[in-house]
Amino acid sequence: MNHTSYLFFDCECANCFDGEGKICSLGYVLTDDEFNIIEKQDVVMNPKCEFDWYILSPKNKCQLAYSKDYFRIQPDFCAYYKDIKKLFTTGNRKTFGFAVDGDVSFVNTACERAGVDYIQFAALDIKPALENEYKEHMKLAEWCDFLKIDVSSFKAHRSVDDAEMTMLCCKTLCQKLGITGDELYQKMHQNVYSWEYMLDVMEERRIKKEFKTKIEKIWNKKNPFPTKCGLNGKQVEIDRNIMHDPESAYDICKAVYDHGGMLVNKLNNNGIYICNGSIPSNVKQKYAARNNQVVYLDDIEVLFK
């Protein structure tokens, strides 16, 4: 019989600059379907990038498990790729993690940086499963303490130890619910993150960053050659709710800039406040007291005629 095996994994990154984590260790614990450990390892690698100074700082409470020099002398992700791919894709295997969406995206990024095919896998995030059952919100080590799991011999942020803590939390949860890991996987299917889904999430983040950068280039600046001068140098403040979607916000910001307006964080006098939906009457009065015009998003075209 082809029994299910369970893979628990965790990644640590050298940095997450530009919203992309560069893996420096990938720890895993492989078990049978009764949570008996078959093997475990901390795959430590050279991230081939600079380390975020803060994660190596004594002020940081989340210290990496190894020194920067130790990471530097290890092989890079390419050297481990085939073994990691086999680990994630072999046989009837269910994969788990804690706050695992980030870890899945880190593996995607590692494949991109190495110029190799994506590893096609999915993983269940046990964090929401724990939160759903116990109505609490905690970090991994705190969950172990809450569940009375002895982790005194483990080192936090050592990937293999974090992976084993994840396994022990999952095992305890399954025992409480009286279900198998397979049944938990099915029960919490909405919290399974696939490599493809995280690719889409990563792409959305990249697009948002691209448009944020475009907005920053024209923010608090006067257009020396406006297409039209309808706004005539007026300051324009845009509702934060609108700015939460940089892609659509850019069209508004660019129109303001092209029509001679200047985008600001906070209006002074005689400016324009663009809002999304209704605003409290006292806030509207505050803008009116300084002779600022409130324009609703649905009526924004009046500014650009």
3D structure, described in words:
The chain is of the alpha/beta class. Helices cover 41% and strands 17% of the residues. The chain has helices spanning 68-72, 77-89, 100-114, 126-134, 140-146, 159-177, 181-187, 195-218, 240-243, 246-258, 281-289, and strands at residues 5-13, 23-31, 37-44, 93-97, 122-125, 192-194, 235-238, 262-263, 272-275, 293-296. A six-stranded mixed sheet has the order 3-2-1-4-5-6, sandwiched between helices. It has a four-stranded parallel sheet with strand order 8-7-9-10, with helices on both faces. Strand 2 (23-31) and strand 3 form a beta hairpin. The chain is elongated.
Distance between the termini: 72 Å
How much β-strand is present in the residues? 15-25%
Helix and strand run: EEEHHEHEHHHHEHEHHEEHE
Contiguous helical run count: 11
List keywords for this structure.
single chain, 305 residues, alpha/beta, four-stranded parallel β-sheet, 10 strands
Please outline the helices and strands:
Elements lengths: L4 E9 L9 E9 L5 E8 L23 H5 L4 H13 L3 E5 L2 H15 L7 E4 H9 L5 H7 L12 H19 L3 H7 L4 E3 H24 L16 E4 L1 H4 L2 H13 L3 E2 L8 E4 L5 H9 L3 E4 L9
Parallel strand pairs: 1-4, 4-5, 7-8, 7-9, 9-10
Antiparallel strand pairs: 1-2, 2-3, 5-6
In short:
The chain is α/β, with parallel strands linked by helices.
